[in-house]
Write a structure and sequence with these properties.
There is one protein chain. This protein is an alpha+beta fold and 326 residues long. Helices cover 44% and strands 12% of the residues. A hairpin with a 6-residue loop joins strand 1 and strand 2. Helix 8 crosses helix 10 and helix 9 packs antiparallel against helix 10.
């Protein structure tokens, strides 16, 4: 079945689709006709488990959701109570357009990179050394990554619409237990007293950079104490950087000598306490056998909250950090 045949079948079946059992977030995010169309496509794609393009169709559909939503579902917060005009009115044509882009990309890859080695996808916790063993010691020629920003965004919640729509989770508690719990700590909603205490102890093994990170956490704890309902940024910071240090240690074992590692990451300033995340990551990486070659500002960020009178006035940026394995 082609993508166009799939959409034609979705048109003929959407009138019989019962959307009443969909998650509340899903029901609130789309007008009924659009949702019936999306659900019809979803059910048809789910039934194509043996089809070689089933996953491509799935991701094209999930990528279509926010394009046709009738509420504000932009990054990083989803606001189903705030109405908007959908960016694209017809979910079927937008779905087909995304499939077309995939086809173009695959054809271009096959035409220009037919002799390249096969790609492999490995799912696992990058903090755990065993998940890197398949690569082999010193065999990787480079790394390009964008770690979570230390900005209190809930990266699990940011995917809630897609998770609920596809049925991967059906409740907030399930999402927290099955998705967020295994993610690197980057938000106060993931933090805990015990994890922060353990992380501060581990930071002592990283010399002066570990001490500096602990001091930042101490300043954040003091700032939290000055507020009646302060957020636990002081618990997030140690856990975050210890996790990053573990990842850099694992990365160092698989990269060949002289191999580059490029990171796209932003700094932050919770409660006005500046956290130079890119520079601190580079210094932690130095402990694992890396040399910093470049630290370049790509864009300034944070201006969207400039009108917030309670927000800090620290200039923030998104930066590209180039490290090289010694």
């Amino acid at each position: 079945m082609t993508a166009r045949e799939l959409t034609l079948q979705a048109i003929t079946t959407r009138a019989d689709i019962d959307i009443s059992g969909e998650a509340d977030l899903t029901l609130r995010s789309f007008d009924p006709e659009t949702l019936a169309t999306l659900v019809s496509l979803r059910d048809l794609i789910r039934a194509m488990q043996a089809h070689e393009w089933q996953l491509h169709l799935k991701w094209a559909l999930l990528a279509t959701l926010r394009d046709v939503a009738s509420v504000r579902v932009g990054w990083p917060y989803q606001r189903p109570g705030s109405q908007r005009q959908p960016t694209f009115a017809d979910p079927l044509s937008r779905f087909l357009q995304r499939i077309g882009w995939m086809v173009e990309d695959i054809r271009e890859f096959e035409a220009n990179y037919s002799s390249s080695p096969a790609c492999r996808v490995r799912q696992g916790d990058s903090r755990e050394a065993m998940n890197w063993n398949e690569l082999g010691h010193g065999t990787a020629h480079g790394c390009v990554t964008s770690p979570p920003y230390l900005n209190n965004f809930d990266y699990a919640d940011a995917t809630r619409l897609e998770l609920y729509f596809w049925g991967d989770v059906t409740s907030w508690s399930q999402m927290c237990a099955e998705v967020r719990s295994d993610m690197l700590t980057a938000t106060t909603q993931q933090s805990s007293v015990g994890a922060a205490s353990d992380a501060k102890t581990l930071l002592q093994t990283y010399g002066t950079v570990g001490t500096e990170i602990s001091e930042i956490a101490d300043r954040l704890q003091k700032e939290r104490g000055n507020r009646s309902r302060g957020k636990e940024y002081d618990r997030v910071v140690p856990d975050y950087f210890v996790a990053i240090a573990r990842i850099m240690e694992n990365l160092s074992t698989v990269l060949a000598s002289g191999a580059p590692a490029v990171l796209l990451v932003g700094d932050s300033a919770p409660y006005g306490v500046y956290v130079d995340t890119p520079a601190l990551i580079a210094r932690l990486a130095k402990c694992q056998g890396f040399t910093l070659e470049e630290d370049v500002i790509l864009r300034h960020r944070g201006q969207r909250w400039a009108s917030n009178a309670t927000r800090h006035n620290v200039q923030l940026a998104e930066r590209l950090v180039l490290l090289r394995r010694d």
